[in-house]
Each structure stands twice: as C-alpha cells, then as structure tokens.
Design goal:
The protein is of the alpha+beta class. Helix content is about 40%, strand content about 20%. It contains six helices and four strands; from the N terminus they run H-H-H-E-H-E-E-H-E-H. A hairpin with a 6-residue loop joins strand 2 and strand 3. The longest helix is centred in the first third of the chain and has 13 residues.
Length: about 160
C-alpha cells in the first residue's frame, strides 16, 4: 500500500503528536477539518493507522532493566510456535516478540524492575516453556535511539500514490 503526500503528512504528524485535534492536524497539513477527518478515518479503515497509545517511560515506573532475549525452540513446528505464542501472551514483561532468521527463532524485548526479576523471567518462565530449547539474553546498557514511528518522509517528498 502506498500513500499520497497528504496522507503521508497526516501519518507523520500523528506519529509525532497523536493527541492533535482534527482542526490542529488540518492546519498543519493545509486542510480544513472535514476533509482532514475523512482522510484520518480512511487511514484507520485501511489499517494504516492501527491505534493510538501513550508512550510511557518504563524507568519512571520502576522498570529499570531492559533486555533483548533470543529464543530457540526445540523444533520449529506450527504446534511449538503456537504453544510459545500462547505462553508469551501471559508474560507481561515481554513487550515485543519477533520471529527472526539466524541461529535463534525469536527476538524478545523485555523490561523488568531489576536483574533478579530478569533472572526469574528467563530461568523460571521462558526456560520452563516446554518447547524452548535455548535462551540468550543481552542487557541494554544505554539506548541511543528508540522510536515507534514508521518512516513516511520519503512518501511525502516523492508524492508517491
């Protein structure tokens, strides 16, 4: 799916500041309220915009340890993947999970209050999932860049449709 320049600008503005009113958004991109609201609704209906959320600083909530955890399954079968996904759904500390290529099957991102909680997560939760064979953790020391924004600048500049 491609976006025209106006839709790309709408997406970029909402990613930067999701609480903009339709009027404010329209002013920023050069549309009046009604056409702007119509375009936002179309972007939502087409699944380009999938939701709105507050971005929370985990450290302010006492979640001071972040880790990336690679997981390898015993065998990469549909039933093992489904069992792993079901088990992960119940683990709140895992904030993202991606199927990956390479030596490991999945890359998880987790956030915990401290190293003891991370240890519990890995040893008593992840390694206890029956289909999990191996787990490798890397603790985040510092974050230089983090964004939830999807790059759309190239669409706004080229005018692709």
């Amino acid at each position: 799916m491609t976006l025209d320049r106006v839709d790309a600008r709408i997406v970029a503005e909402l990613q930067a500041e999701g609480r903009l009113s339709v009027v404010e958004l329209g002013e920023r991109i050069g549309l009046t309220g009604t056409p702007c609201a119509r375009r936002v609704k179309q972007l939502e209906q087409r699944g380009v915009i999938v939701g709105y959320a507050a971005i929370v600083d985990p450290v302010k909530l006492g979640l001071k340890v972040q880790a990336f955890i690679q997981v390898k399954l015993e065998r990469h079968t549909d039933s093992n993947v489904e069992a792993f996904e079901r088990a992960l759904a119940a683990i709140e500390q895992v904030v993202s999970c991606h199927a990956t290529t390479g030596e490991y099957d999945f890359m998880l991102q987790a956030t915990t209050p401290d190293l003891e909680a991370l240890s519990t997560l890995v040893l008593k939760q992840l390694l206890k999932i029956p289909c999990v064979r191996d787990v490798h953790s890397s603790i985040v020391l510092d974050t230089m860049k983090q964004s939830l924004r999807v790059p759309v600048g190239h669409l706004a500049q080229t005018g692709r449709r």
